[in-house]
Amino acid sequence: MATRFGDWLNERSGWRAAYTMVFLRKIPKINWAYTLGSATLFAMIIQIVTGILLTLYYVPDPQLAYASVGYITNELPFGWLIRGLHHWGASAMVLLVVLHMVRVIIYGAYKYPREFTWITGVALLLLTFSFGFTGYLLPWDQRAYWATVVGTQIGEVTPVVGDTLRAVMLGGEEISGLTLSRFYGAHVWVLPSVLLLLVGIHIYLVIRNGITSVPKRGE
Amino acid sequence: MVEEKGHPNGIDEQPATDAKPKAGEDLDHRVSRRKLLVTGVGVMSGAIAATVGVPAIFYVAGPAQEQGGEQDWIRLGTASSIETGTQTLMKATVERRAGYLTTTEELSVFVSTENGADFVALSNICTHLGCRVRWVDDQNAFFCPCHNAVFGPDGTVLEGPPPRPLDRFETKVEDGQIFIRRT
Question: Which of A151, A194, B28, B113 is the most exposed place for a label (fewest CB within 10 A)?
Fold first, then answer.
């Protein structure tokens, strides 16, 4: 039955060829360090799912943000789990993405013909940091507030454009409701749009170019 | 489209080297390495999806389980202040909690009694379009200014467009205080 449906669908979509190309492609003999990219992708999916669930209750309003987070964590059934997964998943993302990059550096996997894969990867690393930074403000507690003060002051020391950069980040001279809503908008709309596009390109390139084998002595 | 030969997946199910059947091996019950891995990954993915997915159902349905956050019995005032044969307008502030938000609502209720022991509490909101009705003592009736509806002292519709009588509250008296509850 399942096979018959698979055949039916395959005749109309060619999904088996795509499946083979993605999941059954030939790869060199590799080790566990090569799973870090997939692990990052998996953590990203968890972040997307739990993030979408959090938007059902979270309100990016200075009066209500903290209360809505408290409601999610303390009153909703499994709210603590959904928020906890998103909270720890964020740290896992940063950790995994850095380890993934370290593996690529150590094995020299950024070399021809994979330079562009590397470039998209660096952009994805910066995106991950941006996610962490914008998401950190959203609970709207003391830690969030002061982390954003510090973070934007770091941005301020940028030569020439520093002051403007900080003002644009904050939506004014100081942290306000405008900061909260623009961080929220960045966190749930702007960054994810760019992320999904880049992840698509990154994975396409990985599949197209194949993955590197572990370098041998002297290589 | 040209029919491909072999397995519908377009791949060779039998691994090339280590799959050669040994003598006396049960060929029908051998599980290929690929099949084991695919199944294992599938089972793990399913378990993870369930770990997030099942709590997510409760999480999404959460507010629907709440009791509306409204106080049950609402205190209106002292029962002895209600005179027989007329309607007394009493007010109460009701707190309503929805998630992290608490809103207050002013509730106005007409209370009447015939014997000083059994009380009738009627909402002052017209069942037609939600205007406030007022009590006209001379005519012994409620009058709605919006579309000239008239309700009797027990809330029944006497004239005009309202589809049903005035809403009634459940009442109780405790320690000389009168309480109402939505039914």
Answer: B28
